[in-house]
Amino acid sequence: TGFNHDGLFLAHLHSPGRHRYSGRPDDRHAVVFDMRQALEQNSDIMSAQETFRSNYLFSHNILIADSEKVAVLEQPGGEFGRLRTDRSRLRNELAWDRPERIAVVNCFALYGYSNTITSRDYRRWYRFRKMAKNSRPGHLSEVIKIMTDKNGSIFNVLTSQSVVFIPHDKRLFLYTVPV
After folding, report:
1. Where on the phi/psi map is residue 98: left (φ > 0), alpha (ψ -120 to 50), or beta?
2. Which of these, 34, 75, 31, lies nearest to 51 by C-alpha position?
3. Is 174 in a helix, a strand, or coil?
4. Angle at the Cα of 151 from the Cα atoms of 150 and 157, rounded to 5 degrees
5. Dihedral Cα 20, 15, 177, 35, nearest 10 deg
6. 3-class DSSP state of 125
7. What is the model's pTM?
8. Can you give the pLDDT at residue 172?
9. Confidence class of residue 25 from pLDDT cuts 50, 70 and 90?
10. Among candidates 74, 70, 67, 68, which has minimal Cα distance to 13?
11. Is 64 helix (H, G, I), strand (E, B) or coil?
12. Contact between residue 68 and residue 78 where contact means Cβ atoms under 8 Å apart
């Protein structure tokens, strides 16, 4: 997770894949180094996503935000990623319909990806959806209300951190468990 002086924000999120990588590790890039390069060389979502053109060893989602928009780069291991916005076509079983808002759980939501969704991912996704229904996009108090939800579907005893980043004034709120 990181952000730059232009307000570009990137967060790496694990998303399990269905199959193990079978190629040689020396022909792959480490996504965290490409994230650093994206932050050093870009100021917006569209230019930053171009940095992630490698086939990576593991599946992941990268939340990308700039001062205007937010998106998720969904990238199964061994494949090129696809950018998901608040208006993207999603898997049939994942409804969203929340303009100017986006959610990320540990699976791929875009239409056409193989099923990596667990029952926990469903519960988290639909809790995010419910809480985002009446929220105002981009308002810090609304985002913090979602991030500190006590229902247990989104955050629970296994949650180690949650992050809120406000790009226009470069404020980062990090909630972590004690070490």
Report:
1. beta
2. 34
3. strand
4. 70
5. 100
6. helix
7. 0.87
8. 80
9. low
10. 74
11. strand
12. no
